[in-house]
Amino acid sequence: MLKDTTLTIHLNKEIKEQASEVVAGMGIDLSTAVNMFLVELTKTNELPFVPTGKQDFPDIWNDDPKDIAAFNKKIGIRDDGVSYGRENAD
């Protein structure tokens, strides 16, 4: 499969380190694991696992679009504060 794009994500450093150790034990790297996740997601149109337990993730769905746009601009992503990530869609 041709890999012709980059995905940049922000996550907790400890989670990244722990996940890297887990997938290394499986003989793959984190990039391969994320690719596998995304391929399965697109094939099945659903998460390839059942979320369990209470997680301490922020509730981004209630964030102000202007705050999200400001953050995206700060990290170099074009964001008009309206299109919700579809600004770069052709």
Dominant shape: extended
The average pLDDT score comes to 80
Order of helices and strands: HHH
End-to-end gap:
22 Å
Poorly predicted runs: none
Largest sheet composition: none
Q: Helical percent range?
A: 40-55%
The overall number of domains is 2
Q: Could you please describe the fold and organization of this structure?
A:
- The protein is an all-alpha fold and 90 residues long.
- It folds into 2 domains: 43 residues; 33 residues, no CATH class.
- Helices cover 42% and strands 0% of the residues.
- It has 3 helices and no strands.
- The protein is extended and about 40 Å long.
- 1% of the residues are buried.
- The model has no long low-confidence stretch (mean pLDDT 80).
- InterPro entries: Arc_rbn_hlx_hlx, RelB/DinJ.
- This is Type II toxin-antitoxin system RelB/DinJ family antitoxin.
Notable traits:
single chain; 90 residues; mainly alpha; 2 domains; 3 helices; 42% helix; 0% strand; extended
How would the blueprint of this fold be written?
Layout: H1 13-25, H2 30-44, H3 65-74
Précis, in short:
InterPro entries: Arc_rbn_hlx_hlx, RelB/DinJ. The protein is an all-alpha fold and 90 residues long. It contains 3 helices and no strands.
